[in-house]
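Chain A, query sequence.
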Amino acid sequence: MSYATGGLVMLSEMLPKLPPSERKIASYMLENPRESISLTASELGKRSSTSSAAVIRLCKSLDLKGLQELKLRIAGDLQKEPSNEIRDIEPNESKYSIIEKMTANSIQTLKETAELLSADELSKAIKVIEKAPTVHFFGVGASYISAEDAQQKFLRINKNATAFNDVHMAATSVANAKKHDVVVGISFSGNTYEVAKILELANKQGATTISLTKYGSSIVSEQADIRLYISATKEPTFRSGATSSRIAQLHAIDILFMCVASQQYEQAITSIDETREAIHFIQKSQSSRSRK
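Chain A, predicted structure.
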């Protein structure tokens, strides 16, 4: 995208978690986005009855480099067309209406994930995965589906990868992790205790840790060397398989996978061709046996 966005999403998502002074600034910026992008840290502090120091602390809480980045993201948000809220299904709703709602929800989730993925953090993740002998993915419940998808993708480009939803198996695998291995903890809420503990164990082993969570500080992201954030869009009441969060996770993993594959393009293409031929060989063999 041609301009940075996501500032308003970051502020609204973090608002209830911020200390009082930072919350005042965030509230002011959410209520007055156009005015805020032209103000200095000192002016923002005065307008929100706080201080310039509190403005700087707010930017750190948002995991941003500084006020300039926050203002650029808000300015980008103001250039966008108004987005639709995630909509829930209704009793006995028509299939056509559900198709329209679910499609709109998915598009909104993908757009917000694109806004919240940090290019700097993504670059760090790409570099460490490229060098890693093994990448371990771990998630619980619906997040395990994303972990398993990631394992399958990276195996296809000849990157050794594991995925476990059993915490004992994951702990056993991570306990044997080497210094340059990478451990990726996936949790939409960021508060899945088992995922946080697996990353903590990985840190003790000297492995590089990556978190994939919704935007904001959490027990999972706090354990990670590299933090990747996805859409903070609230799930509808009818959480059919954690739809929005799963789509956001899969989208982020696809982006990460494609970035790594692009960096080793020729090798990746060769590996994908070889795995495709291997699958075709198995399918052909099964077909021959079924005809006998």
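The two ends are 55 Å apart (CA to CA). The chain has two domains: 7-79, 115-270.
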